[in-house]
Amino acid sequence: MNDPLKKILSPIKELQNIRGIALPIGLEFRQLVITGPPGAGKSYYINQIRGWPNEGYIDLTQNHWWKNQSLVYRPREIHLGLPFAGIAEALTVFDKEYLDCQPRPVLELSRLRIPPAGNGPFATNWRDRYIFEFLIPEPEVVFNQRQARQSQGYFPVDDNLSLEMVEQQIAIYREVALYMHRAGIHVYIRKGLSNPPLRINEHNATNVPPWAVIARPTRPSLKTVAGWKWLVGMRTPAAWLTLTNEIQRLKGSGRIAHDGKAFDMLLGEFRLRFSPEITLGVSKKAVKKNWLIHLPEGCHATAMNGFARIRVGETLDIGRSNKELDEIFNFPKEVAKRHLTVTNQRGDLLITPLDEIHGVRLVRREQSDLRERMPTIRYNTLVKLKKLFGGTISLLPAPKALELLRSVNALLENEPYRIRDQDGRPGGLIELPASTPPVIVGDMHAQVDNLLKILSENCLLDCLDTNAVKLLILGDAVHSEMADEMEDMDSSILMMDLILRLKLQFPANVFYLRGNHDSFDPQLSKGGISQGLLLRNRLLELRGSDYVAEMERFYDLLPHVALSASYIACHAGPPRTAVGRDDIVNIRRNPELAHDLTTSRLQLANTLTSGYTKGDIKRFRAGLGLPKGARLIVGHTPLDPFGSFWKKAGAIKGHHILYSAHKEGPGIFIVINNKFVPLSYPSEPLIKIINRLRLPLTR
């Protein structure tokens, strides 16, 4: 079985020893919850550290499970009630109802309840209350342990014991651990009592949990002023820093307030800029006090830049050993492997130097408040967008819409970089120049503000103007996946109006690949709603049969695959059979291949449905004549509801999944120094903001 944790586990280096067991140094003993499959050694573990002796049970499908009495007493062994497809009640992996099912039911992770983060001043942060340790040895180890204990007495969970049963139970716990981690719950893994704890270190996450790197400070005495400040504010007693335009070296931990001002950090002579993330049009209550870390020079018309975000409650380990940050910033050798940690505590930054040789120096970039300047900075870009789309962001009148669509279809008949098929028509393949880096956007599913956000950030419009990048959209721009928007087709129509405008404006720099939702197929449905048919009917109502016919022609003209020397991109995934360039070019003669490229999904552990595998990706890459290191970037299958991108998805090197339809904001991939770097943007109500803008008068 595929192991979703394979290659994404890193040892936690800062450890404390509690009764012979190595635990993360920042962990408080009573935060600990021990779970794992039967026979993993949980009971012995609890006895060893003198935790609560009785086993507990929580049903993760129940709301407020985090308030369950079983969790009051900690550390404790806890069994998990889990959701399975076709079964209404939660089951443990040793329940008879689960074990008697043949084939075994599929884990239905979407039914898990996630505790609230509790960001408000009087709200409880239930995610911080517990740290779940998943004790998950290798299947053979657990199988042997369960075989050995059968001679010691009767254990009902070991009835009909087999290695296959153990493998399935362990696969389930691995999936649950990864899902809970992605949901923001504190999780780490241990493969045995003699093994060190391991944190999940996915390649799309630059932050680490504070308990994995920072020792909890000793609480100061209430006989001191610092003690009372700690008691009232519940803050770490670190000195507040007042930054000026004079460079100052940080001695020990220090705190910087979220005051709307940026500052520079010098690691040796290498400089990073920290800027509060300012969002437009968002109410003060909804503002998240996140910070952005980026290079001082910023983006420009010939290159986009990467950045890292440090969200409230997150800790970032900055140094060359953080591969994600190193890909973005290309740290020189004077930056230590672990130079410092930065924690965002309710918007304020707690900075702790770790390198004594070069140290950490800080300087205020300027005294002006970014919150006051940001609307001016963004204004010029938003004005460009408004002009590009002809003024108000709204549905085009029927005659203009038909004219635009016909112009784009004429362009697609002779699209740049498109190879013609055997019949002389535009084929299914686009070959893009290796010299121009791509900007890749995943499924947007009618979230128009997400498209506008992508276009208004990071100098993307300027880079399209100067031919510095290629914008590649992986299909499925239409049909909202939000429960209350699935029947609303106007947002889908507006989305396509904007994409068609982009294509006409930048014919050699904007490309749209076909997805499974790019169709009027009546069978295309979500939640029982036939979205393909609804979109067709709405277009007939608004724009008439000529427009619907042209849109069907547009779908037929779309390419299915884009490739360059270092990557392949398609909507869904590779086919399950060997194909070459000619097969994709002549895709109209192979509808099964077209179906695979728009509908296939990654094969996941503990699923009954088949899907594409590492071998299919390797065969696809080889058939297209690309080197072993070429990436495959796809959309279609977000691995969980929490992320926007998954690098090395399915533990497959060079395989990335991207999703750009979250209400909270989109994710994209850009290329920096030949590395594919994921970026995410916060949502902004840009339709409203742009429509309120007054264009400057022209003479």
Question: SSE layout and pairings?
Answer:
Elements: E1 9-11, E2 15-18, E3 21-24, E4 32-35, H1 42-49, E5 52-59, E6 76-84, E7 87-91, H2 96-99, H3 126-129, E8 131-135, H4 139-149, H5 163-182, E9 186-190, E10 198-200, E11 207-208, H6 225-233, E12 239-240, E13 248-249, E14 254-256, E15 263-267, E16 270-276, E17 291-294, E18 308-310, E19 315-318, H7 323-329, E20 340-345, E21 348-353, E22 361-364, H8 370-388, H9 398-412, E23 418-420, E24 426-431, E25 438-441, H10 448-456, H11 460-465, E26 470-473, H12 490-505, E27 510-512, H13 531-557, E28 561-563, E29 567-570, H14 581-585, H15 591-599, H16 614-623, E30 631-634, E31 645-646, E32 655-658, E33 667-672, E34 675-680, H17 686-692
Parallel strand pairs: 4-6, 4-8, 5-6, 8-9, 12-14, 24-28, 25-26, 26-27, 29-30, 30-32
Antiparallel strand pairs: 1-10, 2-3, 6-7, 11-19, 13-22, 14-21, 15-16, 15-22, 16-17, 17-18, 19-20, 20-21, 23-24, 25-33, 28-29, 31-32, 33-34
Helix pairs in contact: 4-5, 9-12, 9-13
Question: How would the global form be characterised?
Answer: globular
Strand residues, percent: 15-25%
Average pLDDT figure: 90
**Strands, total number:** 34
Summed up, the helix count is: 17
Percentage of residues in helical conformation: 25-40%
CA distance, first residue to last residue: 68 Å
Unreliable spans: none
- Count of discrete domains: 3
Structural class: alpha/beta
Cα-based radius of gyration, to the nearest Å:
27 Å
